[in-house]
Structures are given as structure tokens and as C-alpha cells.
Amino acid sequence: MQPPNPNTLYPLANIERLCFLKNLVQNPNIVVGDYTYYDDFEDVRNFEKNVKYLFDFTGDKLVIGKFCMIASGVEFIMNGANHLSDAVSTYPFAIFGGSWGHAMDGKEYPVKRDTVIGNDVWIGYRAAILPGVHVGDGAIIGAYSVVTKDVAPYAIVGGNPAREIRRRFSGEQIQKLLELRWWDWPPEEISRRAHLLTGRDVDALST
């Protein structure tokens, strides 16, 4: 048997509520790795609607790694949502033109870095990821979480704002997993060791 084809939009026959996401997204500022899937209760095409405020003029990107699991209703809030926070008013006068058109001359709206989701990340139902957040490989984001700051590799976070609950493995095991980068293995090698990837013996993966 062959491993699933990452270039298939709907990898499960006759089930269109789950897709391999890279084959769906159209926006060039959204980059998605192989085998990352999105599950939506209504329509998988909701995904790009849930990437909010991603405007060309801000120049930011949403980058999602391989083998991620993104649940229905997950939202990514991008840099286009930012307003001035250190000025007298946060109101965006300049965008309305007229006599306000030059209000931002010599100034810039705050822009954070790209939003980056690592590999093998599970993002639970209706979680929200705020601009510029980096989520490490192997992390788990709990349902309804609001992620306002970076998440360490293999951390489990939850809440509003999201806080670390625990790490999935010991520090030594996490370092080994980050060095192994199993998500970059050829599909055939992943197939050969899939029974180990679904277990807890990290050492067995390196043999």
C-alpha cells in the first residue's frame, strides 16, 4: 500500500469536511506544508475566511508546517488588524481620506512578524492565534484558546490568554524529537515507522 497522496484535496473518500489544506488555499501569503489537514463542520472553504485581516499592504504571511491538525472554527488574526496603541487615539483616521488623509504621514501602523505554526501542531476547536505568534513543533493548542504569545515546542497550552499547561515530553526527549524532524522523512519511511509515531517511545524512533 502507498502512503496518502499529499496533493489530494480530500484524502478521505467521499468526506469533504476534511481536506489537505495546501491544496485548497489560494492566497499566496498563506503557506501550508504537506499533510496538514483542516476539518470544518460546514465547508472547508471557510479556512481562508477565518484568516482575518491578511492584507497585501502589511506584507505578513501565515506559514503552517507539515502534519498539522486544524479544527473547525480556528481563526488567525493577522497584522492588518493592528491599530496605533501608543498614540493619543487608536482610530485609523487616514484610511477615510478627506482632510484626514495625511494623518499618518511620517508614521506607520504597528506590524509584527509573520505568524508561524510549526510541524505536527494540533490546534483545537475555535482557537484564535494572534498576529506574529510562533507556535513550536509538536505543540497542542486547546479548544477556545486565545494565543497571544509564542508557544514552545511540544507544549500544551489553553485558556484566554493561553498559558502553558505542561510539556508533552521531557526536555531531553523534546530535543531528540526536534533533531529527528520526522515530518521531513520520506513518506515511505514515515509509513515504516508509523506504529512508533503513535507510541510514546521516543528512543525507538532513532533506531
Task: Give descriptors for this structure.
14% helix; UDP N-Acetylglucosamine Acyltransferase, domain 1; 207 residues; single chain; 4-stranded parallel beta sheet; 20% strand; 15 strands; 7-stranded mixed beta sheet; alpha/beta
Can you put this structure into words, describing what you see?
- The chain is an alpha/beta fold and 207 residues long.
- The protein folds into two domains: 18-168, 3 Solenoid (UDP N-Acetylglucosamine Acyltransferase, domain 1), CATH 2.160.10; 171-207, no CATH class.
- Helix content is 14%, strand content 20%.
- The protein has five helices and 15 strands.
- Strands 1-3-6-9-12-14-15 form a seven-stranded mixed beta sheet, with no helix packed on it.
- The radius of gyration is 19 Å and the shape is globular.
Strand content: 15-25%
Question: Per CATH, which architecture of the largest domain?
Answer: 3 Solenoid
Q: Tell me the total number of β-strands.
A: 15
User: What is the CATH fold-level name of the largest domain?
Assistant: UDP N-Acetylglucosamine Acyltransferase, domain 1
**What is the distance, rounded to the nearest whole angstrom, between the alpha carbons of the first and last residues?**
23 Å
CATH superfamily of the largest domain: Hexapeptide repeat proteins
Could you tell me the mean pLDDT?
A: 95
Radius of gyration: 19 Å
What is the CATH C-level name of the largest domain? Answer: Mainly Beta
Instruction: Assign a percent range to the helix content.
Output: 10-25%
What pattern of helices and strands is seen along the backbone?
EEEHEEEEEEEEEEEEHHHH
Task: Give me the side-by-side strand order of the main sheet.
Answer: 1-3-6-9-12-14-15
Count of DSSP H/I helices: 5
Report the biggest beta sheet as strand number plus sense, adding barrel if it closes: 7 strands, mixed
How many structural domains does the protein architecture include? 2
Task: Please tell me what the overall shape is.
Answer: globular
